[in-house]
Amino acid sequence: MKIIDKSRVQRDDSIESLKKEISILMIISHKNIVKLIEVLASRTKIYLVLEFMKGGELWDIIKDKGKINEDEMRNIFRQILLAIEYCKSKNIAHRDLKPENILIDEFGTIKVSDFGLSSLYEDSTQIQNLLHTTCGTINYLAPEVIQNMGYDGHRADIWSLGIILYFCVAGRLPFEDDNVSKLLEKIVSSNYDMPKSFSKNLQDMIKLILNNNPKKRVTLEQIKNHSWFREITAFELMTFLTGSFINRIFDVQFQKRINNLIQLKFIIFIQIDNIILNAGLK
User: Protein kinase domain location, by residue (predicted)?
Assistant: First the structure.
């Protein structure tokens, strides 16, 4: 439950932001987005009754484990992308994607939350898509947002996805500096170090996402077709072999790839603990 103090909302002049968040949550319905169940109010408080997320935040996992291996992160990243892809289909840009806003339910399903800074476009034309407000958490902001020029909220969300991906696998942010001005310079110029521990496919994916030119930045569809994104994970292998197709994305093409692996006898059962963890089995 999200409890909001009415006086604070009025004092901070954030009534419109709250109305926007409630409106967006009421019109969206997706398995990878936290569901709004009910809105209640008293004389002093507003209560947003949200779907209970027993697993906590993605941030909590990084805090406890330090980082996430690529195989686990691939499954997490795919679910986040599905949520953002759905939002785009509804002309919604999240604009504040970060690990703290990525939640996990009791079954291990990833869900995006906190639409307080989101934008709901009236239509999908380019002119309507250009935003001019700077919002979000600074380390996850896209260069075009920092430069305070008209920007496409969907492309800015893709940049934030790249920051989340980098952060979770590396255990640190790509852009860091105690001096805010220098931090902003690094982001605008896309000046970061690529961890050698990243696979070649992941390195390529990060480079494509963290392109400081939004027009040249990779699209959601291109991400879905990228080699790193399409690699088969231990989780998918387990769901295929057990007949459970929940969270499987690639349908017929995915099944053909699995069948080919089985025929070639290339399947090796490793990391059983990770398989059990990812599959949400107890």
Answer: 1-229
Query: Which residues does the annotation mark as catalytic?
Result: 96
pLDDT digits (tens, 9 = 90+) for 28-81: 899 999 998 888 888 888 888 889 899 999 999 999 999 999 999 999 999 999
Domain boundaries, the chain: 2-50, 56-230, 234-279
The type of residue at 137 is T
- Rounded to the nearest 10 degrees, how much is the dihedral formed by the CA atoms of 260, 261, 264, 269? -160
pTM: 0.77
Task: Return the CATH number of 2-50, one of 2.60.120.10, 3.30.70.20, 3.90.180.10, 3.30.200.20.
Answer: 3.30.200.20
The CATH class of 56-230 is mainly alpha
- Distance, in Å, from the CA atom of 3 to the CA atom of 229, rounded to the nearest integer, reads 37
Q: Summarize pLDDT for 178-199 with one digit per residue, the tens.
A: 999 999 999 999 999 999 999 9
Distance CA 45, CA 5 (A): 5
Question: Residue 65 half-sphere exposure, CB side, CA atoms within 13 Å?
Answer: 15
Phi, psi of 114 (to 5 degrees): 60, 85
